[in-house]
Amino acid sequence: MAALIARHPETMVILNHLGMPILADTDGEVIWREGLQKLAALPNTCIKLSGAGFIHRRWTMENIRRYILTAIALFGPARCLFASDFPTDKLFDSFDAI
């Protein structure tokens, strides 16, 4: 994906749901972080801090904090957006909690 995006610097790309790390895979978090690093190196990319329930069905700030902080560290605050995924997020928590 990073190679494709690099070929189109005029197109802004927004990565959804924290890039959806696949934690069920033993290498999932490493693959996720390496992929985010490649995407964050491209100035025409941003990331949405959303979809916590897709990472941890019973998410809490404690179990998703490192994913959010990693995304902010790699992309910088100016390239991070907050979003909900309502109504799908209702499966995992209330709008107020999110």
Molecular structure report:
By secondary structure, the chain is α/β, with parallel strands linked by helices. The mean pLDDT is 89. It has helices at residues 2-6, 28-40, 52-55, 61-75; strands spanning 13-15, 45-49, 80-82. A three-stranded parallel β-sheet has the order 1-2-3, with helices on one face. 18% of the residues are buried. Helix 2 (28-40) packs parallel to helix 4. It has four helices and three strands; from the N terminus they run H-E-H-E-H-H-E.
Question: What's a quick, concise take on this entry?
Answer:
The chain is α/β, with parallel strands linked by helices.
Key descriptive features of the protein:
alpha/beta, 3-stranded parallel sheet, single chain, 3 strands, 98 residues
How are the elements arranged and paired?
Elements: H1 2-6, E1 13-15, H2 28-40, E2 45-49, H3 52-55, H4 61-75, E3 80-82
Parallel strand pairs: 1-2, 2-3
The percent range for strand residues is 5-15%
Identify the strand order in the major beta sheet: 1-2-3
> Count of DSSP helices?
4
Outline, from the CA principal axes? globular
The class by helix and strand makeup works out as alpha/beta
